[in-house]
Amino acid sequence: MRPFNVVLDAGSAWVDLWAPLLFDRLPCKTTRLCFTIDGRFPNHEANPLIEENRRDIVEQVIAEKADIGIAWDGDADRCFFIDGTGEFVPGDFVTALLAEAFLLKHPAATILYDLRASPRRPRRGRSVRRHLAHESRRHAFFQAAHARNQRHLRGEVTGHYYFRDNFYADNGFIRVVDPRVDVEEGPEPATAARAAASQVTSSPARSTPALPSMAAVPAKLDEIAVQYADAHQYKLDGISIEYPDWHFNVRPSNTEPLLRLNLEAVTAELMAAKRDEVLALIRA
């Protein structure tokens, strides 16, 4: 394994107990942040998915000229990556990189990804799209589909990565040292993934004001389908609409007459315009 320069952020959580057992055996130079367990989380919340909680590790990666940064959430079932330029690598792009690695060993494998994933995943070296299968992002359905179909890997944009050989469970350490990805190629995949991610702008998930009743939800989804009839559509956990330069998913709440929108576009301007357009349709 190449002697990477790595910045680690334990988030003042229990990664402090486990990461040293792993990284002390690897030929890596490590800079360790927040490695004292403290349930008051004095430095930042242990949720690197939120940008403000990544500020320390981003600054340290840049200061150290590190190859990569790795951060975990509080219970270490999720891991997050910062590339050598200090940019965050989204989970769906990490899933695409993992998919390529798994396909080297299991050419017929199918990889599950959730509906929020970007269709502009990196495709380096080989095409992986034909091996990808999307699934409801609701955890119970996702977990059942993973085990039922014996998928080798499933990834979520939230930083969860589930492995068949880990009893279909998620794990925040397997991804970190998966030899099929990092040993041969080093940190470059993360930089490639971040470059691909920079080509799109995502809108944070938005919950719309409540509809009159649960019975009104299917009618609203049908209205969206009619409005965007010229797009590629699929109805799994709500409705997903795909155009060449933008796409979105609208899914209903299980318990309330609410709809949640996730939308992505190739420019910030297009994202904002289409976000407002879809929200106006939902609220009409």
Residues in β-strands, percent? 15-25%
The CATH H-level homologous superfamily of the largest domain = Alpha-D-Glucose-1,6-Bisphosphate, subunit A, domain 3
Number of domains: 3
Distance between the terminal alpha carbons, to the nearest Å?
57 Å
Features:
single chain, 284 residues, alpha/beta, Alpha-D-Glucose-1,6-Bisphosphate, Chain A, domain 3, TATA-Binding Protein, 3 domains, five-stranded mixed β-sheet, 30% helix, elongated
Structure description:
The protein is α/β, with parallel strands linked by helices. The protein has three domains: 5-89, Alpha-D-Glucose-1,6-Bisphosphate, subunit A, domain 3 (Alpha-D-Glucose-1,6-Bisphosphate, Chain A, domain 3); 91-197, Alpha-D-Glucose-1,6-Bisphosphate, Chain A, domain 3, CATH 3.40.120; 201-283, TATA-Binding Protein (2-Layer Sandwich), CATH 3.30.310. It is built from eight helices and 15 strands. It has helices spanning 15-23, 55-64, 91-105, 139-148, 182-185, 188-197, 216-227, 268-283; strands at 5-9, 29-33, 68-72, 79-82, 88-89, 111-114, 132-135, 153-155, 161-163, 169-170, 201-207, 232-234, 239-242, 246-252, 259-265. The strands form three sheets. The protein has a five-stranded mixed sheet. Strands 7-6-8-9-10 form a five-stranded mixed sheet, sandwiched between helices. A hairpin with a 5-residue loop joins strand 9 and strand 10. It is elongated, with a radius of gyration of 20 Å. The relative contact order is 0.11.
